[in-house]
Design brief:
The chain is mainly α and 337 residues long. The chain has three domains: 45 residues, no CATH class; 81 residues, DNA polymerase, domain 1 (Orthogonal Bundle), CATH 1.10.150; 167 residues, hpI Integrase, Chain A. It is built from twelve helices and six strands. Helix 4 packs antiparallel against helix 5 and helix 6 runs antiparallel to helix 7.
Length: 337
């Protein structure tokens, strides 16, 4: 129905509309972008909705349709994040329709966010979400042409190895937490010995813990969705079993069982009591997420394979786990030739 061809390295598209042949430049050398535009045209032609030369969709019309789709396919927190970035873009550019957006808008938007004090990681993350939004606009035929965010250069960010606690710091932190508050003690134990994320700690239930098989199964329910929708199972650490066994219950939440899920992201957020313990024993850079880094770092330093650590952490891609590679012992395989 529509065909792509290249001229001087740039993709062009040819298609028939109402009996008339149209040929136009897509302004991109990227075949993936060109293919997305071609698919959008073919969908419109198949529905017998003839395309104007340029698809002109009001921003509000598209955004309402996008939210309708996102509510069925994305997590609430992701939607709120995208709503925030979209609002910042609309406030800065004040475009009335999608077709008015150009790459230079996003280059200027990128610099504007930095001038407001946003860090390079935060700005790069905003561009990532906006690119995904425009990809969806192209897919559904609300925007014609290559994605205007696609070629925007991201800020260079130095990737530093994550900080983590040593064994002495772990024991010191647990001792202070046990004396201060039962919930923060259990939360720290789940972070250090199971690598749970902050939200997973908040929604952890006794049903996740199988003392007989010595396993932890992190699964979602009606109030909680596991990141990337991927449930995972990992071995129950011996030290964690020692902590949980005397406190075990047949069901319910492990932390603050009386707290019911509500409108907030965390059913029970133990950060305040965690920060109180942190002020007692430090270090200053300690955060709840450092507990998860500690879990992975200690395993890597002990020689556990990165693939296995990735499975236990719930990483969708083992590349994410490469940040712990520097901790692994010297690999003698290098001397095999």
């Amino acid at each position: 129905m529509a065909g792509l061809y290249k001229r001087n390295g740039v993709y062009y598209i040819s298609y028939y509309e109402a009996g008339k042949r149209h040929m136009k430049s897509l302004g991109t050398r990227n075949r993936k972008d060109a293919t997305k535009f071609k698919e959008a045209i073919e969908r419109r032609l198949a529905q017998k909705k003839w395309l104007p030369e340029t698809i002109d969709t009001p921003c509000k019309v598209f955004w309402d349709k996008y939210l309708e789709w996102a509510e069925a396919h994305k997590r609430p927190r992701t939607i709120e994040t995208e709503r925030l970035h979209w609002g910042h873009l609309r406030e800065f550019c004040k475009r009335k329709s999608l077709k008015q957006y150009e790459r230079r808008d996003f280059e200027e938007f990128k610099l504007h966010r930095r001038q407001l004090g946003n860090g390079p990681v935060a700005v790069n993350n905003a561009l990532k979400h906006l690119q995904a939004i425009f990809n969806h606009a192209i897919k559904l035929g609300y925007f014609s042409g290559p994605n205007p965010v696609q070629g925007v250069e991201r800020f260079k960010v130095e990737k530093r190895p994550p900080r983590f606690l040593n064994q002495e710091q772990i024991e010191k932190l647990l001792a202070a937490a046990e004396e201060y508050n039962e919930n923060v003690f259990l939360g720290i134990a789940l972070g250090v010995y199971a690598g749970m994320r902050r939200r997973e700690i908040s929604f952890a239930t006794w049903e996740w813990i199988n003392f007989d098989r010595k396993l932890i199964s992190i699964v979602g329910d009606g109030h909680f969705a596991v990141k990337d929708w991927e449930a995972r199972t990992l071995p129950l650490h011996g030290r964690l079993a020692e902590i949980l066994w005397p406190r075990r219950r047949p069901d319910g939440y492990i932390l603050a069982p009386e707290a019911e899920p509500g409108v907030y992201r965390y059913r029970y957020d133990f950060r305040k009591v965690f920060d109180a313990v942190k002020r007692q024993v430090g270090p200053d850079w300690l955060t709840v997420h450092v507990l998860r880094h500690t879990f992975a770092s200690q395993l890597a330093a002990a020689g556990v394979s990165l693939y296995k650590i990735a499975q236990w952490l719930g990483h969708a891609n083992v590349k994410t786990t490469q940040i712990y590679a520097h901790l692994q012992a010297h690999d003698e395989d290098i001397n095999r030739f």
